[in-house]
Design brief:
single chain, about 150 residues, alpha+beta, GIY-YIG endonuclease, three-stranded antiparallel sheet, about 15% strand, GIY-YIG nuclease family protein
């Protein structure tokens, strides 16, 4: 846990939770105060809740290891922290890491990681003048295959 002086200096920050067995991040978040440590406490106290992040934390603890808490950037405004968090999630996911984040990050669809070709298509797309009554819209950008 951070002491009072450290908490005040940190302001908003972006952090990663790492698996000590391979040193790879499994969660990226933004926080203030002792937020980075709350995940461990919640995973161990709330044993009825099962999700990828909590299950990973419990597995690490069961193996006698400690989750690594990495502060990526600190001294940030909340807005800056949101942007950095979203950028990290986009980048790490693009590089093939399976993060346990439920949400990709703020504005990931509109401003997130894209190829140069996607940027050109996005900003040169013609406005839709008419939409039929029988249609389905699919956001392919967030489509994941398992």
């Amino acid at each position: 846990m951070f002491d009072e002086k450290s908490r005040q200096a940190l302001k908003y920050y972006v952090y990663m939770l790492l698996d000590p067995s391979d040193n790879k991040p499994f969660y990226v978040g933004k926080g203030i105060d002792n937020r980075v440590f709350n995940h461990l406490a919640c995973a161990l106290i709330d044993t009825d809740t099962s999700n990828t992040k909590y299950d990973k934390i419990r597995e690490i603890v069961k193996n006698g290891q400690t989750v690594k808490h990495i502060i990526v950037r600190h001294g940030l405004s909340e807005s800056e922290a949101f942007q950095i968090e979203a950028s990290l999630i986009d980048t790490l996911t693009y590089c093939g890491l399976l993060l346990s984040n439920i949400v990709n990050g703020h504005n990931s669809i509109e401003k997130g990681l894209m190829t140069s070709e996607e940027i050109v298509r996005l900003y040169n797309a013609q406005p839709l003048s008419k939409m039929g009554s029988d249609c389905v819209l699919i956001n392919k950008q967030n489509l994941q295959t398992w």
